[in-house]
Amino acid sequence: SQQGEEDPQALSIQEGENATMNCSYKTSINNLQWYRQNSGRGLVHLILIRSNEREKHSGRLRVTLDTSKKSSSLLITASRAADTASYFCATVAKNSGGSNYKLTFGKGTLLTVNP
Amino acid sequence: NAGVTQTPKFRVLKTGQSMTLLCAQDMNHEYMYWYRQDPGMGLRLIHYSVGEGTTAKGEVPDGYNVSRLKKQNFLLGLESAAPSQTSVYFCASSPFGQGMFSYEQYFGPGTRLTVT
Q1: Residue-wise pLDDT tens digits, B84-113
Q2: Chosen from B35, B96, B104, B107 to mutate, greatest number of chain A CBs within 10 A
Q3: Full domain range(s) for residue A103
Q4: Nearest by CB: A48 against B40, B92, B104
Q5: B4-99: what fold?
Q6: Dist CA A47 CA A61 (whole Å)
Q7: Which residues 6+ apart lie within 8 Å of A70 measured at CB?
Q8: Calpha distance B1→B100 (Å, rounded)
């Protein structure tokens, strides 16, 4: 099963509302990254949070990390129609042999912001 | 500064044909990656490179080969295309750091490949 799994799979909100997406993972991580993908485009990096960090902000984005619960959340405040996209979390953890790091993407949350 | 570019943007192949996807980055990044994205699945790593002249297998390498003869370019080859290789392919790069995934990745716009 996936190392990182987003919840919910889809989220529909009105412009101006806040959107919260969650990511759960199974093994200890080195860092966790959030990406956005607009339809038909490449992924764009949003925030990277390291295992010794608990919260990071970037503009209207807030990411939290709870290593005890093995979960992270992405909050988008005051959403806009332009925030409509798929959001992916990606976890970086040691591979099964322990010799290298491995990055695993979740399946994503599709966020729709209605004007 | 174009970032990461990919050519071509679209391609249709018949089963058994071969092709090469080209990725170029102008950010002087050490690490480069090839991913595939299929409906309902997260991105999966095909091959990666930690520097010029080096390549390594990722999660789903079968049926693909890669080369990194120049630091700025990373080529993905399909020697004998199969319908299972129908997908969207993304190239990415990241700067040198304490391990391959210690910094964010920069993605290209993708190549949509259909194998009939």
Answers
A1: 999 999 999 999 877 778 888 999 999 999
A2: B104
A3: 4-114
A4: B104
A5: Immunoglobulin-like (2.60.40)
A6: 8
A7: A24, A25, A26, A27
A8: 23
